[in-house]
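Fold sample X.
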Amino acid sequence: MRDDDREEILRRIEAGAVRDAAERSADEAEAVPDLVRELGGHGREGPAPDLTFGGYVETHDRPPAFEGSDGQPYTVDLDTEETGDPERPWAAFLVFIRWAATGAGIMGHLTSEDVAWGGDEHGARAAALDLTLYELKTRLDRAIAVKAELMEE
C-alpha cells in the first residue's frame, strides 16, 4: 500500500470520527435537560410554580418540608408581627416545626429572624411567600446554627 493511500484512509477515518462526534454531541445536548432553565425559571415556560414558598403551598396544598443541617425533619410556616417601626410596620418571620423522625409528633420549633416587611400584615406575608425554597432552607440551617451556638454558651 502506498503512503498516499494510507494518508487518504487516515484522513477519511479522522473526518468520519469528527463528524460522528459532532452528531453525537448535538443529540446528547438535546437529551440533557437545561437545569439552569428548569430550576431558575428562565425558560419559555416561566418559573416553576412550586419554586417559592407560596407557590409550593398552592401547588401541593401543604407546607414545604426539609431535612435540616442537624439531620432532623422540619416543616415551615409563616407568622407576622407588628414592628413598631412606622417605615416597616409589619414583619414576617419563619417558624420551623421539628418533627419526630417517625413524623408522629412535634418535637420542637425554631424561628428565623425577620425575612420580609410590609406596610400591613398582608404585605409582609405576601413578601415572605415570595421567598424561594432555597432561601427557606438557608434560613432553616441558619436557625439551627444559631440554636447550636446558644446551647454552647
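Fold sample Y, listed below.
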Amino acid sequence: MVRRRRRRTKLLLLLGLVLLVSFLVNYFYTEIRPTVIFGLRSDYAKALPFQKVPVGLESLRAEECGRCHREIYEEWKTSIHAHAYTDPFFQAYWKRDNQVWVCLNCHTPLENQQPTLILGIPQDRVEKAIQIRNPRYDADFQQEGVTCAACHVRDGVIYGPFDDSVAPHPTEFDPGFRTTKVCYRCHNVVSGPFQFYNVGPCGTYPEYEGEYFMKEKGFICQSCHMSEVTRPVAEGGPIRQGRRHLWPGGHDPDMIKRAVAIHVQADSPVPQAGHPITFTLTLINAGAGHKIPTGDPDRHFTVEFIVRDQEGTVLDQQLETMGRWILWQPVIVEVYDNRLLPLASRDYEFTYEIPKDRKGLVVEARVRYHILTDGQHAMLREKYGLKGNDPYVFNIYSREFPLDSTLGVALNTQPLDPRVGCSSFREGTVNPTGHQIFG
C-alpha cells in the first residue's frame, strides 16, 4: 500500500513537472520570445501616415510622377524598390512568416498601401497587434512597393534634395536627402528580446564604416547605390547634378563584383608532378563601405577550388564560406560572423599534390555569392509557393589555372584589379608578373 502511494506520488510529481515545463515553454514562446526575427523600433513599428494627393497631381502613383520625371520613373520601375512587395522571394518568405503585417512597413511603407490599420501593439508583440480594416487601402498602389511617394510626399508637399525647385505642385527642400538619414528607417532593423545579433538581423546602416569612406572620401549610401548623373530632373527643367533611382545592392551581381577585388597566386610558377602546390585566393572588400555580404542574414559567399582532369572529372575540391552563422532556436544567437569589414582582406589557401601519372589537370578558383542556400530555396518552392526562376546564386569570379609549365603565364595574364595593392603579395608567392617574391 505504501509503495503504491509513493509510486502515485512520483507520477503526480512527474506529471506536474511536465505540465510546468509545458507552461513555461508556451509562455516563453507566446509572451517573451518575439515571433519575428527582429525587434520593433518606433519609426518602422507603424506605417508611414496616410498621404493625400498634392495639389497639381491626379494621384500618388509612380506613373503620375513619371509624366514629368520620365527618366527617374523608368529607372525606378526596374529597381528592387519598385518590386519590394511583388518580389517572389519576399512573397515566399512573407508567407512562411504568416504574412505578418509589420513586414509591410518597409515593403509597402505608406498607410495608403496597407489593408489594415494598427491601433496598438500590446507588449510589443506583433501577433497581438490590434488591427482594423483600412477604409483607404489601395490594393493597386500596394503593388508599387517602395514607391515615389513613400520617400517624397508628406502632408501634401513633395520633398526633395533641391532648394530652388519650380514645379506645378508644392515642393520643399529636405536636406535629409543629401544624407544617410533617408535610408535609416528600413536599413537598420534592430534586435528584439532574446535576439543576440551583433548589429541586428539586417544591419547594413550600423555597419557603415565611418572613417575612410565617410570622412576621407565623403561617401554616403547614395554615393554607391544612387550614382550621380547630370540631367534635367523633370522634362524641360534645368540640367542638374542628380542621382539615378536604381538602388543596386544585394540582389545585383554586378554591384557585388564592384565591391570585391580578387586575385589568385601560387607558390610556384612551374608545378612539379609528385609535389604539392599551394594556391592562395585573396578576397578584398575593396569597394563597399559596409561589411560584405550585408543585409539579409542568409546571404553568403563561397570560395571554391576545384581540380579537374581533361575529361572534366573532379579529382579534388575545397569549399569555404563567408557569412553569418545564427542559432535560431530557442533564442536567436549570432554564433559566428566572418564577413569582411570595409577594406579588409582574407586569404584562402588550397594545397594539392600533383599526381605523377596525370596530365592536363586544371584548378578552377571560384567565388560565388548566394542570396540564400539551396536548402532554403527548395523549402520556399515546395512549402511556400516560390514562383519563377529568379537566380539566387551568382558567379562573382571564376578562372582556371593549368597545373603545368604554363601556370606562370596564366597567373601573369589575370586582369589586375588596381585595388589589389602590392601589400597583398607575400614573400614566396608569384605576383602578377609571374615572378616569385623573395625577402
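Sample Y note: Residues 196 and 333 are 5 Å apart (CA to CA).
Also: The chain is about 25% helix and 25% strand.
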